[in-house]
Amino acid sequence: MGTQFTRVLGLQFVVAVLGCCGWACPCWAQGTPYLRSPLREEVRGATEAATQWLVDNQLESGGWGSHHSPRPIEVFASAPGSQDAFRVATTGLAVSALLDSPFGGEAKAAAVQRGVEHLLEHYAVRRQSGIEHYNVWAFGFALQAFGECLSEGATPQHEAEVREACRSLIKRLAGYQSIDGGWGYLSLQGYRTHPPAASSMSFTTATILVGLARVQEAGIEVPGGLLSRAIASLRRCRMPRGPYSYGELWNRSPQSLINGPAGAACRTPACQFALILHGQSISDSDRNSSLADLLVRYSGLQRAGLRRPIPHESWCQISGYFFLYGHAYAAYLLDRSPSGLRQRHAPALAHAVLACVQPDGSFWDYPLYSYHKPYGTAFALISLTRILGPDR
């Protein structure tokens, strides 16, 4: 343990020194304009290519992603329930990402239409077992996609069906709300119950709260008790120094590496953004601190976890599958932040996301069956679209 701690301190020191020297992220320190050329052109090209990749790689069913894997060992996700959940969640993400993109034209609009039809047919995912309830991810991302489609009038011919699906998903979420008020995707401790008796995870709760906010914005009623319990759970996950713990069970160990600013860097923006959407106050200094943790202070530690195939094996128990997730929610957070913060952090955010781009235009951060390219490209597209800003 002492050796690992020393290595972590050493790597953090190197990252900090490089950042101060203007190499790791000169734009953060200097407060340069939102994006300058040639970075702006690179981001624009990557945004267009990511849009095209999602359009070209949509399944015949209208969804994205599959259970097929070239690896002999995979993440614990049993068929059929957990695989159904992964596919629905990935499809919801892809629909949200394509809705944001300024590229794609009629082909993109058709892909969104087919994606929504896939979600309407498959959103009612059942949990695989008392241990695995990944279906809460499907509910959260499907709600976000449905809410955004309603707000943007993207699929008017399906509006009534989408609204009914939203109401059904909210009822299902109430049945999976953990006893502590949030949502988790595995019951690894204690009894396998329904609703789950196991602890929630902060980032899962945050993701679902974002989906619920999106449908509220579209005029769908969400029970106040369901929201207040989830918000209270998420607020309890804030550690004294500002980062958010992995979940309520982990609150008892605030000094553990996974709960520190480096280990939490990819989930803290998501937690802050979710709270902001539900009327909670997050100061500019707290936003700046969380973005600086992700994009400057501990950016090297986040990149060190990229594409490592075993969850939480990297520095500070970081997993690669948090990378593009965390940067997408950082982009959402920047959208709700003062212009000074956007100008300060957007270039670093662009460089981080572009580190995951592939020659075919896709993005990925962690090998996960055949979901990693669709979900990674969707998260990247969400980030890049916002980095470009309204004058894209």
Characterise this structure:
By secondary structure, the protein is mainly α. It has one domain (24-388): Glycosyltransferase, CATH 1.50.10. Helices cover 56% and strands 0% of the residues. It has 15 helices and no strands. The chain has helices spanning 2-20, 26-30, 39-56, 81-100, 105-122, 135-152, 159-175, 202-217, 224-236, 268-277, 284-297, 299-304, 323-335, 339-354, 372-388.
Strand content: under 5%
Helical content class: 55-70%
Largest sheet: none
Number of helices: 15
Average pLDDT, all residues:
90
Report the strand count. Answer: 0
Oligomeric state of the chains? Answer: single chain
Low-confidence runs of at least 5 consecutive residues: 1-33
Output the helix-strand order. Answer: HHHHHHHHHHHHHHH
Structural class: mainly alpha
CATH class: Mainly Alpha
CATH architecture: Alpha/alpha barrel
How widely separated are the two ends? 48 Å
How many whole angstroms does the radius of gyration measure?
20 Å
Shape: globular
The figure for the number of domains is 1
CATH fold assignment? Glycosyltransferase
